[in-house]
Amino acid sequence: MTDFRQEAKADPQAADGLAARAGALARPLGVGAALALAAIPAGLAPWQAIAGYGAFAAALLLWPSGGQAARSRDKGRAADAVHPDFAVIEALDLPAIVFDRETQVLRQNSSAQALVGAYPERATLSARIRSPAILELVARVVDRGLPDSVEHAERVPSERWHEVRVAPVNPRAEPDRRLYVLTFRDLTEARRMDRMRTDFVANASHELRTPLASLMGFIETLQGPARNDEAARTRFFGIMLEQAQRMARLIDDLLSLSRLEMRAHVAPEGEVDLGRTVTHVVDTMKPMANDLGVVIELAVPEQPVVVTGDVDELIQVFSNLIENACKYGQSGKRVLVTVANPDADGAQVTVQDSGPGIAKEHVPRLTERFYRVDVESSRTKKGTGLGLAIVKHILARHRARLVIRSVPGEGSAFTVKFSRTEPAKAKAAREIYQ
Questions:
Q1: Helix residue ranges, H only, 263-381
Q2: Helix count (H) and strand count (E) of the chain?
């Protein structure tokens, strides 16, 4: 265990020495000697008398040392109670670093090593921590002896936030012998959730404000200059209906997201035949695809592919994916929908288009709320920016995942992969496609 740099203090009673104790015990030692001499004429052998007296004298002389050892052990336990046990530091899941007044690192746990790197022997904090804010915090706590904290953000290699706290371990000790502990509390996920919530409110407000402003403008025009213009009224009413439908779609998607989030941890229990479900979705999508000049091709195995799920929610998933493939892959004129049940993996459904594809920097963010690769194109195609976010939440509830592969100029493939589990034996869900 690392040295705590405690100097041993000499006990004043230990300085008396053996001679002082012998002088203090002169009377019992003399009585013992007289008894030993008197026992020889009574028949005790001289060596036995000498040995007995030696044992008696040694017990008297050494007894104070035993008491002193007990007192020393008590002091040692008291000292251990003041300083931290490094085993406890190692057991913490928070990154923790113990250092002295000179900022020399005495110990760091494995979490701290993973965060800032391993410190060399007798290194100082600045060997691994270069942030001026953290080093100023350390200097402030060492100077004042009071705990303090600061929020620290990093941008490289990835964006992370931590609450860094420094506190003295033994504040009642002398300043030169104080130890300090520095801990990091990860705030990254909380900050990301706050940012996501803020962005969501801002984006939702913007998406609603735009059609609402359009409606208000046309209403004012109809009440004023175009009051008696029949042609203008007919054209404006068509635009107003389109904007109202846009707001209705957005509100419906927001309500769907809200319902999905409320049931995110409740796994579905019905049994769904993927082949029949996807066939139903393709049949309902063909009129829309024909209007866009897109042909939907379907490949379904002869044997049923059954998974545990909610048929209504899975219909919503495949409807979103096929509709997106037809709209944004319209230039490819072809969408291939495949249902498969590989032996090694679970069931999967792939929707593949031959459109322009998606640049790789956009792919990881496609399932974010209101994220669009091309904002104008999305609005022109009546997209709300929430379709893939809804897909992600439904698949999370079904313990499934969405894999996106896209090559610019060649098209995109969206694959829904279900976990390989036995279908639930609960009551089958209502199949609306019958």
A1: 274-292, 311-328, 375-380
A2: 12, 12
Could you give the angle at the alpha carbon of 235 between the alpha carbons of 234 and 238, nearest 5°?
A: 90
DSSP E strand stretches across 319-399: 334-340, 348-353
Residue range(s) of every CATH 3.30.450.20 domain in the chain: 86-186
Residues 6 or more apart whose Cβ sits within 8 Å of residue 349? 274, 278, 318, 337, 338, 339, 340, 415, 416
Residue 328 near residue 380, CB atoms below 8 Å: no
DSSP letter at 422 equals: P
Domain with CATH 1.10.287.130 in the chain: 191-262
* CA gap 378, 370 in Å, rounded: 10
Give, rounded to a whole angstrom, the gap between the first and last alpha carbons of the chain: 73
- Measured CA to CA in angstroms, residue 67 lies from 14, 29, 81 at distances of 11, 20, 21
Q: State the DSSP code for 124.
A: B
Nearest to 309 by CA among 275, 355, 267, 370: 267
**Burial (Cβ within 10 Å: 0-12, 13-18, ≥19) of residue 387:** buried
Contacts of 351 (CB under 8 A, 6+ apart): 318, 321, 322, 325, 335, 336, 337, 413, 414, 415
Start-end ranges of CATH 3.30.565.10 in the chain?
271-418
- The superfamily (CATH) of domain 86-186 is PAS domain (3.30.450.20)
The domain 271-418 having CATH identifier 3.30.565.10: the answer here is yes
Q: Choose among 135, 85, 89, 84: nearest CA to 110.
A: 89
**Predicted TM-score of the model (pTM):** 0.51
CA distances from 358 to 37, 50, 241 (A): 109, 102, 32
Q: Tell me the pLDDT band of 257, cut-offs 50, 70 and 90.
A: confident
What's the pLDDT tens digit per position in 162-209?
999 999 988 777 878 889 999 999 988 888 777 777 766 776 776 777
CA distance 330 to 332: 5
Instruction: Please say whether the beta carbons of 397 and 260 come within 8 A.
Output: yes
Q: Please tell me the distance from the alpha carbon of residue 110 to that of residue 90, in angstroms, as a whole number.
A: 7
Which class does domain 191-262 fall in?
mainly alpha
Cβ atoms of residues 310 and 272 within 8 Å: yes
Highest mean pLDDT of the ranges 26-35, 114-123, 213-222, 357-366: 114-123
Beta bridge partners of 401: 417
According to DSSP, the β-strands at 400-407 and 411-418 are antiparallel
